[in-house]
Amino acid sequence: MEWLLNPWVISIIVVSVVVGNIAALKYTANMKFGHKDKVKYMYDKSRREQELDELIEKQTANDKNQDLKNLKKHT
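-> structure tokens emitted (75 positions)
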């Protein structure tokens, strides 16, 4: 326990904590968060959903036309 209270040991611990925190700040300072990517993803998702809705509407319209043609053929 006596060696832990030695001023040299305390100084080394303090310096290592400070250096470690500075290194962590330097590393995280250049991080880019995905806000722009998320906005682009949401825009693309919305666009794909709209295209899918349009395709479904076209398909249902084609199915109705086919049904009408089949009814006309049978009558």
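Residues 1-31 form one domain.
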